[in-house]
Amino acid sequence: MRQTVLYIIIYIAVMLPLIASGQKGDGMHRYNTHELTIGETNFVDTIPIVFAGNQVYIPVYINGERHLFNLDTGSSQGVAYIGTNTGYSAPLGNINSRDANGLTDTIPIVEYPELRLGTPSGLSLRGYKASLLPRHGHHFIYDGIIGFDLFNKGLQAKIDVKRKRLILTDRKNYFNDEPGFEIKYKLQRWTPYMSIRTFLTHDEPTLFDTGATNFFVMNKAHFDIERKKDPRVPALVEETTYGQNVLGSYGAEKRGLIFFLKFPSLPWGNFTFTNVHSFTTQGDSKFGASILSYGTFVINPKRKRIKFWSYTGGNNLEVNNHVDDVSYMEQDAKTVVASIRHTSEYYKDGFREGDVVVSVDNKPIGTLDEFNAIKFEKGKSYKFILLDTRGFNKEITVNIPKND
Predict the structure, then answer these.
(1) Are 222 and 196 in contact, with CB atoms under 8 Å apart?
(2) Which of 24, 150, 166, 245 has the most Cβ atoms closer than 10 angstroms to its Cβ?
(3) Does the model's pTM come out above 0.85?
(4) CA-to-CA distance for 234 and 200, rounded, in angstroms?
């Protein structure tokens, strides 16, 4: 059962656009990329990566021990998880951090020891700062996050998940001859935002966010404005429902109307993605890491450009992606149905927003981590016991489609 909408996104934008506020002496840490030191000059380094669950992971060696770090371009800087043996320092101060839902909190900043990327003798990063956050169980695959500050330092990169490699270089013109279609970006809160023509007359500010898992999501407030202005926009709506689609570090987005959308075309510069399924969110519009499955990306921070080249070549590509029918969140240490599509088999079988997952195949379920630990297999059936909002239990057999 796929739940990419919700639980891998939990830190999608924790991700930490910095808000430099307050005065000197207020205990707030003011991070800048000059504090990060690259251990080489005039280099080209090819780093092996792991691409799993629509996320990019970089092997990182700390004191000779291997860890996996998530590469998250939607995060302005790194993240360290409390309790991991990555050797991070005592807190250096605090920053104001904003999560996926626009909620803010003050959190501590720490510094990693020297990081080696890819191999024990790979590219060295020294002085790398990170926000210190609790580690959720479903993040067991990785021990930290590397954010967009790696590129803001001046490094160019090519991400190629098909060949499982990340190429980093400080050479100014190294990727100039790479084929592809470029989009210019602007830094907002130290992360890359592009202008995407989602409708005929609307340019949408869109974050390039490899920490998110979906292909594309759109800010609901902006969509509401456009659907009232342009009579052609409502034709993009496949379905509407109410719910809460995204959890952030500091709480869930407010319950509201969710639009499930289908864009006949979505541009990336002069390239066109066709038949893109999407949904609205109360956070920023963004391209997520699913887009990496379709081609290579070159990040050029000197020119503030991101270049895409399809694995199949040409100037257009059909996506026809899947958007999850049901998403879950945690409330009071219980797993709750956060949103559900009314046209889905789950809804027809009896799933409703607000239902609490009591058990799966007679295994009691409490937290979202416990639910996510279940490895649902395609083509198999599972018995759910759900507690509805009236306080009654219901038993539902869920058949996981082979193509889900």
Answers:
(1) no
(2) 245
(3) yes
(4) 13
